[in-house]
Amino acid sequence: xxxxxxxxxxxxxxxxxxxxxxxxxPLGSNPVAAQSLNDYFxxxxxxxxxxxxxxxxxxxxxxxxxxxxxxxxxxLSVSQAEITGxxxxxxxxxxxxVTLNSSYTININPFPSQAGQTASANQTVTxxxxxGSQSGSYSVIGELIEAEVIxxxxxxxxxxxxxxxxxxxxxxxxxxxxxxxxxxxxxxxxxxxxxxxxxxxxxxxxxxxxxxxxxxDGILQETSQLKTPDEKVSLAIAQGTKLLNAQGKALDxxxxxxxxxxxEPPPQSAIVSAYDFGSEGAxxxxxxxxxxxxxxxxxxxxxxxxxxxxxxWDEATDKWxxxxxxxxxxxxxxxxxxxxxxxxxxxxxxxxxxTLMVERPAAFVTRTLSITPAEVGVGERxxxxxxxxxxxxxxxxxxxxxxxxxxxxxxxxITLAGGASEAVTFTIxxxxxxxxxxxxxxxxxxxxVKGTAxxxxxxxxITPAEVxxxxxxxxxxxxxxRGxxxxSYKVTLRIDNEVAASAVVTLxxxxxxxxxFTIxxxxxxSYAVAVDGLAGTFVVRTPPExxxxxxxxxxxxxxxxxxxxxxxxxxxxxxx
Length: 576
Prior knowledge:
CATH superfamily of the largest domain: Immunoglobulins
Radius of gyration: 42 Å
Number of strands: 42
CATH class of the largest domain: Mainly Beta
């Protein structure tokens, strides 16, 4: 699985600078400062590594994808552009640098020149650390070697207009320990430290001087040359080629056999030789090179050898399809062609070219971008889909990448026969409010994630903290809507974990409001208060008994009365 590690690479700049260097500036002069790239192009570029943890001689890949959209017509027509570069790695501690790929080329053809046109470049570059490389973290850098454009059929160098280098990302390299050693036969096993786990591709009807080994992703570990026992057929497969079966898994077998009774050729054509290759549905990226040695005695009289063609049998149409790029070598009686999948291949004579259907390679077009719904809440799902159509005549696989805010969110890989269509659907959800841009295979759109009301309760206050039975206690709390849209919130007061009261508060985004509860208790004791996660207590006490003032008053009154009585009695006795 690829991991996105870099957002803007050198290729995106190349697309726009190449045109501005020639289409806008007279030859021999420097770019005019008034001209802006954004006046003519908008572009997006990504660089992806197949992996970032590399061990020993392991092969890995950098895939450069660039798309440019022309917003204004160019003054001059640029027919194509070709950029050659190399990839190096610089050790982040020691500063030592090594070459991972000495030369790769990106060709942009046709080149857009009118408003509304789009140019895309997609190049997978094979990378490998040389033996003896130092372990550690490396910065991977793309260096420009040469850049040319074709204007009015004249190739012109524009290397000086472009940045000489661009950081592509970073990887960690671990040198393989202990040397290779021989390996016993077939399939992989558990991966030892410093050793890439591989499996051997089984061969039937083919031989090779070296074992055909692929890693778990189907990547060929060493360049191989396969031949049939009679050496009439050879397959050249470069190191780093991805070999996959019909299910998209690493290929586990290859086979070749001569076809003695091939399907009937078209009228006025003859089959010189035919071979069936398997496994059925196998796909190669980049294409391997197929060479068939033919017997010139089987060529009908009057047919020139250089008119021979390589054709494949298309089971979907039950027709022979002429392959583009066939090369005939009359001196060695061979015909060679690149192939990216397996089926029955044949060497045909073509006395009447109109009798052979010319191969139309797979060509994919993306239409009808749909984003539904266009507005959702935080965490809600958005469905993004588009219709992919193979407008070519041959089937192939196609990778579709969904970018959200120019970052790869997800990918899909589909297989389409020629002329077929399939809807590709992605479902995503975002947790942050905002407007999100969508790019799906060149089509663009947006969706909006609305914010939500987000309530919080704070500043709990209980006054007074101590009351007598039956007296009221005031409980306050501050409710705040921390979100950016209005909403309602229910605040609940619990006393001793029992709901005592509640209130509903409606607030706009960013606003606050104080909620007040008043409660009284007739039973003395300590009461626990809880308001939406905030806690406190108050105490209710029994009031003291009132003083019985009548008792001492009565005693005093009685004493006074007794004194008065005695005094009166004494007075009367004295008078008597």
